[in-house]
Amino acid sequence: MFLNSVVLILQEILEAALLISILLVLSRQLQLSARWFATGMILGGIGAFILSFNLATISEWLDYAGQEILIATIMLAVLGLLTLIGLYSTLPPSSSRHALPYLMSICVALALSREGAEIVIYLGGILNHQASIQPTFTGAGIGAGIGLSAGVLLYFGLLSLPVSWIFCTCIVLLALIGGTMASQATLLLTQVDWITYSPVLWDSSIWLPEDSIPGHLLYALIGYEATPSLFQAIAYGLGFLLVSISATLGHLNHFRSRRTNTGDK
Amino acid sequence: MFLIAAILAVLTLFNFVAALQGYSSSLKEANKLFDQHLRQTAELIARLYAGHPIKPLDDESTLAYQVWQGQKLLASFGIEQTRPITDFYPGFGYANFDGYRWRTLVYYDQNHRNWIITAERTDLRYRLAESVISHAILPILLSIPLAGLLIWLIISHGLKPLRMLSQQLKNKQADDLSPVVLPELKSELQQVNQSINALMSRLEVALNREKHFTADAAHELRTPISALKIQLHNLEEDISPDNEAFQQLRAGVDRIQHLVEQLLSLYRSTPEQLAHNFCRINLHQLAQDVIAELHTKFETKQQIAELAGQACMIEGDPFALTTLLQNLLNNASKYTPPGGHILVTVSTEGHLVYLKVEDSGPGIAPEDYDKIFKRFQRLNNKPDGSTTPGCGLGMTIVRNIADLHRARIEIERSRFESGTAFIIIFTRTED
What we know:
The complex is a heterodimer of chains A (265) and B (431).
Chain A: H1 2-29, H2 35-64, H3 66-90, H4 93-96, H5 100-126, H6 130-159, H7 163-191, H8 213-222, H9 230-264
Helix pairs in contact in A: 1-5, 1-6, 1-7, 1-8, 2-3, 2-5, 3-5, 3-7, 3-9, 7-8, 7-9
Chain B: H1 2-49, E1 63-69, E2 72-77, E3 91-97, E4 100-109, E5 114-121, H2 122-158, H3 160-171, H4 187-238, H5 244-268, E6 279-282, H6 283-293, H7 295-300, E7 304-309, E8 313-316, H8 318-335, E9 341-349, E10 352-359, H9 394-404, E11 408-413, E12 420-427
Parallel strand pairs in B: 7-9
Antiparallel strand pairs in B: 1-2, 1-5, 3-4, 4-5, 6-8, 9-10, 10-12, 11-12
Helix pairs in contact in B: 1-2, 4-5, 6-8, 8-9
């Protein structure tokens, strides 16, 4: 129970912590008020409880594929939000900056709802087994500690980069998370037969198992999979490209408008 | 905030990962232990069904037992002796046999009225326990250097602004009281930086006030001193010019006037006050003008003032350089006895221009060379040990003006039998 609890909590907390850290650094670079973070956390907490209490009903929808479809939809929504965040954060400040806090808030709320619901269901289930409570909650504490520490270190690590690198690194990391979201959504849709199975591209579980701590870290950061399927890899690439291209377009637009302004003068 | 959060995160991460790793390793080790006991239990059962073996099957077994009924040994395992391992008292205990210390358990089977004694070697028990614990501790031990390295990097990074602040303060010129500007300051250091800049600003105001006070006071004193001089002139007509009290009064007023003029010159010779009206000046011509201006003074003391050398052009402030020459020549005249020599030489060598003022006064001991540039410093260099009248500001003014012109001052013995030579070395301007 202890190890299961560590692995599950670590994976959920780590994913959320890394996403939040990157968004916080980006928001700091763009000099946005951090109020969106508090709003996102509160909404995410409420969303997690609502989702966890209704997941049993949801899983019966769509011929018992409801849970997978809903989670995949949330993941694709997060990908969409990351694309918009990438685009708006690189656009000229006056045009659309005001929308960014809302986008970040919704992104955090959706991610926390998904991760939080799984934690609430898992820990809620354990409460009925008296003997498992102590090892489970100890494991949950350790998993949460590792996940939060990694998030804090990523936050400070990004801030300690040379100023000109911070923004670019944040966008690349967001694009990687976007790729992970697309890949995981593909996996879930494959599990419920909404997408056909595709061959496994490689198996690196011997060198770096997914259930090891580095495996979890890499999964949360770059969506590492020891045995990815072809469609997952394609989805990963598309997700990555979507966020990076939107950020590049925004940057080009910003650059063009700056040149126009300079030309006017 | 940054240091606390980052160090806490590093410690949590490493401790928890190490604990997790330790847990996994210990669990594996404990499982091995349980498996070993399971195997030994199976072996025991096998031997019980096979009869009553006396000798163990292999040397790895950590367990031994005896089954007694009254004084009769029914069965034994892992031990050769045929007497009881320990006394027949139910419970745990220790016993020594076969050259080892054993942990024992005595159990009485009431159904068959048998005494069962089981024993395990303590050294092997400790070895197994240590193996489990060491597997738990090892990851913590290995994580410490890594955590230390990360903490060192974090602290170095966290203290970087403080190092930059101290470096900026260290690199500041003595008279530079401008605010310290640091990029990307953490909130804790913003307070320190603001306090330092506020202190600089207050210090600058105080220093300016002090500088202006001296100059303002000197300036304000000029008018009453001029009035005093007029009154002295009027008084001179009414009383005998040989009156001793009158003579001392006039000498005193002259000294006050000189001090006030020197204080004003000192103030005007500071870099902030000189307007940097630099232009090309013929130093030889300037020296000639100043000697001519002070001619009466030299004549009164029957001193011979001469000018040697050639025309040399330098970049300089005419007013400041006139003050410099006046101070050097006044000084030379003051210390040179009546009938003595004063020689001013302007020469060039390479890209340097030398202004040398020599006198035939008593001279200055080499150990006093540094002292003469201090404010209000006067040397007892008269043969009788007395001090020459003056305010002790002349050479400070000379040094200020030389510094302003990036000129160097050297002092040496003059070419006369006794006396001092002051050499001011300027950089030459191309003709």
